[in-house]
Structure to design on (589 residues):
């Protein structure tokens, strides 16, 4: 069962204060979707620091190692040729390509990791709570299960209403199938 | 909101100690060094004058670039780079002293400034500069003097205009100054774009008149830009330790550190671009520059040391987000980089100025005179910059981006 109660807000300041109140009421916020980056949202949701740059570092280190080891292997042991009167192992001439591959691997690994982590990989179906969240509304989704009683629904509704919500809707992704 | 700064007597004392101890060390060093002591003093005067001129110009450049680029985060600390710009006219005096020495042959910094260098009948005639490269049009005393005086005048005037409009903003309000401050910033960048390059050729590159590099100006710019950012971090941290600038927080340090990290990488990029083309091309008139630095133990050591200090050290240390937000660590990195780029300028200038042109032997040294001169200039710098800081509010209260700067934060 993939079902959410979604509170739609039309102002980011209201949204930020609403997040605090909803958390205080004891609900777990599954996700918040906004049409543009909202400053302070990460802190309000209690998100930890992104680990994306670690992926970038590992990717960059991989690219660096591949580039430099391939060039050393190729020009020293596999096919040694003297060019420009330089020794076989001349590190300065490897640096530009090493730099390029470091940047390339770092960038691509970060993009791929970002897409996978955000559920935007090729075969994934994106979860759109409401199409207007890509335009002018801010959505806050609370996950509901079979165990959620009608009493809980009304409590969620009350909490949303108390925080100045613009609209409340229930989104069931099972219906799409 | 207005915050005034008072130049504390403790800092004045510290500056006086830097200045006095530095001067003493220079004088003592010059006596101990014997024959070439005076040459070393002149050479170090040139190094420090150029480094601190660059620091002043680069900090104003940072402000100007933010001003025309609608930048806002820097507004809280804007007055510090502005005050750092006030060092440029003072350094102009030292540039004039060096210029007088060049014109009246008081020193041997500029090999091309000797009498009869373009005269085939003279003993000083240098066929490479005069004939092969034909540099007499550019490297002659009259045109050189005009250029140096023009730089000092243009830089001082532009920096005065930048600081003046910012001071006026506090009194007259933003509507009277905003548009004008953008024009002035644009004009400053226009002046700086040309003079930072030509200035580096005239003041630094012409100590090696046989050699030239077209990206030398940008390489110099990147070097003193890192120095300027390092000094900025040190001054902000110092002012905060004295209870000023309470709204400056980790976010602003983070941005300054990102700039310092970025410009360190940019510096290395230009350093390497210059080195690799010369190394690959392997043409005698170009490789002479690096040959000079590799034949001498001191220069060779500094050549590698400056690469480690100015690239590997900041690159590895400042890479992590946490490091950029750790003020103590940042202060340490800033001090190291400040010295690192001073060493870089030492290695740019000294081989050209301290090499005997007939025997090709280096008379350079590294000791009392070098550290003494740097200490003297740090003393002067503290006096001038902190005195300027007292003259206006530490926070530009009428700046439209002030709120943006206070609430500034970098995404995680």
């Amino acid at each position: 069962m993939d079902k959410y109660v979604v509170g739609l807000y039309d102002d980011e300041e209201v949204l930020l204060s609403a997040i605090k109140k909803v958390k205080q009421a004891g609900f777990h916020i599954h996700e918040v979707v906004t049409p543009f980056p909202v400053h302070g949202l990460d802190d309000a949701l209690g998100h930890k620091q992104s680990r994306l740059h670690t992926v970038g570092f590992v990717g960059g280190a991989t690219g660096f190692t591949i580039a430099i080891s391939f060039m050393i292997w190729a020009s020293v042991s596999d096919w040694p040729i003297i060019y420009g009167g330089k020794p076989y192992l001349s590190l300065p001439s490897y640096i530009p390509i090493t730099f390029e591959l470091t940047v390339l691997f770092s960038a691509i690994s970060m993009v791929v990791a970002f897409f996978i982590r955000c559920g935007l990989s090729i075969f994934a179906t994106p979860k759109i709570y409401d199409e207007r969240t890509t335009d002018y509304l801010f959505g806050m989704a609370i996950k509901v299960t079979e165990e959620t009683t009608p009493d809980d629904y009304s409590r969620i509704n009350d909490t949303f209403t108390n925080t100045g919500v613009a609209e409340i809707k229930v989104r069931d992704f099972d219906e799409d199938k | 909101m207005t915050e005034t700064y008072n130049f504390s007597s403790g800092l004045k004392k510290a500056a006086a100690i830097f200045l006095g101890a530095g001067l003493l060390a220079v004088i003592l060093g010059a006596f101990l060094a014997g024959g070439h002591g005076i040459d070393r003093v002149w050479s170090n005067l040139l190094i420090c004058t150029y480094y601190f001129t660059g620091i002043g110009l680069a900090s104003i450049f940072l402000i100007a670039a933010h001003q025309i680029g609608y930048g806002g985060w820097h507004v809280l600390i804007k007055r510090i780079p502005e005050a750092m710009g006030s060092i440029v006219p003072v350094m102009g005096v030292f540039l004039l002293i060096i210029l007088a020495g060049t014109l009246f042959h008081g020193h041997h910094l500029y090999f091309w400034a000797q009498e009869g260098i373009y005269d085939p009948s003279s003993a000083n005639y240098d066929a490479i500069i005069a004939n092969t490269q034909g540099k007499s049009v550019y490297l002659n005393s009259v045109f050189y003097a005009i250029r140096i005086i023009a730089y000092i005048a243009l830089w001082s005037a532009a920096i005065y205009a930048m600081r003046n409009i910012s001071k006026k903003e506090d009194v007259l309000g933003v509507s009277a100054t905003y548009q004008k401050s953008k024009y002035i910033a644009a004009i400053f960048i226009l002046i700086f774009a040309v003079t930072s390059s030509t200035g580096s050729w005239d003041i630094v590159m012409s100590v090696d008149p046989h050699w030239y590099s077209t990206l030398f100006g940008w390489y110099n710019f990147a070097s003193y830009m890192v120095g300027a950012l390092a000094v900025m971090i040190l001054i902000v941290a110092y002012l905060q330790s004295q209870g000023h600038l309470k709204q400056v927080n980790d976010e602003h340090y983070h941005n300054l550190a990102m700039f310092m990290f970025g410009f360190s990488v940019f510096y290395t990029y230009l350093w390497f671009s210059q080195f690799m083309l010369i190394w690959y091309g392997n043409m005698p008139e170009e490789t002479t520059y690096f040959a000079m630095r590799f034949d001498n133990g001191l220069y060779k050591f500094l050549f590698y040391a400056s690469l480690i200090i100015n690239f590997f050290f900041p690159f590895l240390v400042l890479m992590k987000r946490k490091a950029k937000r750790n003020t103590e660590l940042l202060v340490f990195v800033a001090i190291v980089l400040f010295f690192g780029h001073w060493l870089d300028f030492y290695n740019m200038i000294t081989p050209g100025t301290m090499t005997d042109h007939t025997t090709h032997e280096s008379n350079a040294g590294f000791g009392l005179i070098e550290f003494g001169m740097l200490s003297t200039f740090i003393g002067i710098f503290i006096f001038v910059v902190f005195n300027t800081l007292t003259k206006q509010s530490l926070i530009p209260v009428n700046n439209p981006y002030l709120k943006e700067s206070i609430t500034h934060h970098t995404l995680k």
